[in-house]
Amino acid sequence: xxxxxxxxxxxxxxxxxxxxxxxxxxxxxxxxxxxxxxxxxxxxxxxxxxxxxxxxxxxxxxxxxxxxxxxxxxxxxxxxxxxxxxxxxxxxxxxxxxxxxxxxxxxxxxxxxxxxxxxxxxxxxxxxxxxxxxxxxxxxxxxxxxxxxxxxxxxxxxxxxxxxxxxxxxxxxxxxxxxxxxxxxxxxxxxxxxxxxxxxxxxxxxxxxxxxxxxxxxxxxxxxxxxxxxxxxxxxxxxxxxxxxxxxxxxxxxxxxxxxxxxxxxxxxxxxxxxxxxxxxxxxxxxxxxxxxxxxxxxxxxxxxxxxxxxxxxxxxxxxxxxxxxxxxxxxxxxxxxxxxxxxxxxxxxxxxxxxxxxxxxxxxxxxxxxxxxxxxxxxxxxxxxxxxxxxxxxxxxxxxxxxxxxxxxxxxxxxxxxxxxxxxxxxxxxxxxxxxxxxxxxxxxxxxxxxxxxxxxxxxxxxxxxxxxxxxxxxxx
Length: 478
Known about the structure:
By secondary structure, the protein is α+β, with helices and mostly antiparallel strands. The protein folds into 2 domains: 1-105 and 263-453, SGNH hydrolase (Rossmann fold); 106-261, Galactose-binding domain-like (Jelly Rolls). Helix content is 34%, strand content 23%. It contains 15 helices and 17 strands. Helix 5 (89-99) runs parallel beside helix 13, helix 9 runs parallel beside helix 10 and helix 13 runs antiparallel to helix 14 (435-444). The longest helix is centred in the first third of the chain and has 25 residues, at 2-26.
């Protein structure tokens, strides 16, 4: 362990010297891969695909390295963001990338999204009548929200919820431990968990987390852990209220994992339509729930939706994000943070007026607050690149989201950047092979070569670098 730590620090020091020298030459953070052939477009692409201020991720890399060496990894990644995250394709491919080098011990956190009228591909849920679900975009609902961004509420004497995992990779499809995150306004609700076929889960512990701050919450939230004797792929939660008392049960999160199994948990905390504002302002339980999860890496992927706001204030946005980062660092000092910049978009054929400002803010925040940043906007190709991705069927026709293949590519690009950075800081015997990611990126990224082979039947209505021009009306009577 001492040998690792010394080499880890030596590598970090050497990398810092390289970055400082390059930064002095260019006045900014520079690429971390040497260009061996300036004519090679793929090499140039990979050259641009790097983690800004990656030394901020050293504790996370150390956890990965140690787990890889002794085959006993216990780590967690929490990925919060907007619809790009919630849809699940990006997260699913990230899990697969990590699964090639480390074990995965379960699906991680999720929510019965169908209650809130969302339908991701990886879980399905049904409920009895009397449930109300919402997310932190709608603060007027009277619900409070945590890191998942969703809450389900019921006041019934008996309420039932079933959840099953579907279409997930094999490592995530089954579990034997379920953690329920909830608030019981009366502290009297009885929770019973079975697998919808009569096999019961045994409750083993309850952890109380008191909430502090300016919220109106006065009773805290709880998490209760149930363990099954065998692996399951679905649950049935029955909630019973004693007598005729007036109380309400709030469900914040479900966490699925395997006991007795080492590995990585990759938690999905995406909310369709979310902005940083919703996380920082409306998720009043987020800080304590992040502390409870204790992730080794927190990835924050916002920016697409606020790119279109007419009332966007750069100074206020920067202050809000910095304040949230400082709050997390104080509450969970072991957690490293990675910011990702938003993709290029043209929702409703509208130019995203704030994207460049958001990208610049996030990159500057990373440098000044010892967090890392991955500039996906630049990696994607910058302004107008959404049209290239659209032609290659990597972007959806709404020009706001990517296709499944697009999210797969986004994940592989991020995995490449993370693992390349990781490899720079660890000994050779703990490094990750980058070849599978290079091959996949080469086959699907919109390079000049494969763009020429694409037949565009329906070109974009407006060119990527032009704005819609309003033509003067003719023959208008005065």
